[in-house]
Design a protein that fits this description.
The chain has 362 residues and is α/β, with parallel strands linked by helices. It is 30% helix and 22% strand. An 11-stranded mixed β-sheet has the order 4-6-2-3-8-7-11-12-13-14-15, with helices on both faces. The longest helix is centred in the last third of the chain and has 20 residues. The chain is globular and about 45 Å long. The two termini are 33 Å apart. GO terms for molecular function: 1-alkyl-2-acetylglycerophosphocholine esterase activity.
Length: 362
């Protein structure tokens, strides 16, 4: 098992803190009512959550997002449950009611649309949760993908099916290989689950991709080497903690911010082992959490938390949140469309005038 490095712990703390901007002691507590941007695809969204057995008898909470046939009468899911969000806030010493979890575009239990959907798996970062890239997840699902997100029990804020709220454990350090093992366990079960009407038949398990943020990005790389069912992988600013995998012959996209090839030898080493299609892009002004929901949610918390402009920049960098959302929606979709659906566009060919802040690194 790989323990967390001092730097990864610092990055994990940033990821948690990014959802939890504090209020000055003299200010009365305020409640921020958060909102997520809507996805751009043609499909309404269904979602279902379930508890699955994971390695070492650990329960894993999983959500599946998918195109829905219709959503009338099916309630919208929240980004985090009313029990989990206060636990996350209080763990960092903030008032439990400083924010209300936003509603997502996903409708709980809606019947699946007809068709066959490529499957994309998601692995979160250290001390985080499976909802932290909902902007990307919803975008993919709205364009015809089934996206499976996994809470890594013992390193996640989550709520089990019996209502128990669980938080990251200090007694069981989780490394990228543990995350990879969790996702492989879920993947092994995907063909045998009880799912909303039509969804089980719609999952195309011959077209599978995976992405992850931070430690989850490292887990994506490891699992791709270990399991050829995963045909394409994407990393959101992963440190690629060693030991690194051997050569990888399938497509991989690095979206970097702080864990760049110039700054992190492990990332440069991983890049040198990519033998298939590869790209490395980076947005000007991005920080470690900029390719996640935090980039759009934290500015909404700024007024309630009385954040100064300088404090806000420390949480989100200088990448404009509206532009960050467009990047999150456009580039993962273009990548999986190219490599799971063979739909060739031009966004990944090189710099685009539509995204002047995105650099292609040689």
């Amino acid at each position: 098992m790989v323990s967390l490095t001092r730097r990864e712990l610092a990055l994990a703390a940033l990821a948690v803190a990014a959802t939890l901007p504090s209020s000055p002691a003299s200010a009365a507590p305020a409640t921020a009512r958060l909102r997520l941007p809507r996805p751009t695809g043609p499909h309404p969204l269904g979602t279902v959550q379930m508890q699955l057995p994971g390695p070492e008898q650990r329960p894993l909470m999983v959500s599946v997002w998918y195109p829905a046939r219709h959503v009338a009468g099916f309630p919208r899911a929240r980004w985090l449950s009313a029990a989990v969000l206060p636990a996350l806030l209080e763990s960092a010493g903030f008032a439990a009611d400083v924010a209300v979890s936003p509603l997502t575009a996903g409708h709980l239990g809606a019947p699946a649309a007809p068709g066959r959907f490529p499957v994309v798996l998601y692995s979160h970062g250290a001390h985080d949760h499976r909802a932290d890239t909902t902007v990307i997840v919803q975008e993919l699902a709205s364009h015809g993908y089934a996206v499976v997100t996994v809470d890594h029990t013992d390193d996640a804020y989550s709520q089990l099916s019996d209502g128990q709220v669980i938080v990251p454990s200090e007694d069981r350090p989780m490394g990228p290989q543990d995350f990879a093992d969790d996702v492989r366990s879920v993947l092994d079960q995907l063909g045998h689950l009880t799912l909303p009407a039509g969804l089980g038949r719609a999952l195309d398990l011959h077209r599978i991709g995976m992405f992850g943020w931070s430690k989850g990005g490292t887990a994506t790389a490891r699992l791709m080497v270990q399991d050829r069912r995963i045909r394409a992988g994407l990393s959101l600013d992963a440190p690629m903690l060693p030991p690194l995998p051997a050569d990888l012959d399938r497509p991989f996209l690095l979206i970097t911010a702080e864990n760049t090839r110039a700054a992190e030898p492990a990332v440069a080493e991983f890049w040198s082992h990519l033998r298939g299609w590869r790209r490395n892009i980076q947005a000007d002004g991005a920080i470690h959490s900029s390719y996640m929901d935090y980039q759009v949610l934290i500015p909404q918390l700024a007024e309630a938390a009385n954040l100064t402009d300088e404090e806000l920049r420390s949480w989100i960098g200088t990448l404009d949140p509206v532009r960050a959302v467009r990047i999150q929606q456009a580039y993962p979709l273009a990548f999986f469309d190219l490599h799971l659906r063979h739909r060739r566009g031009h966004l990944l060919d090189g710099p685009s005038p539509a995204f002047p802040e995105v650099t292609f690194l040689p």
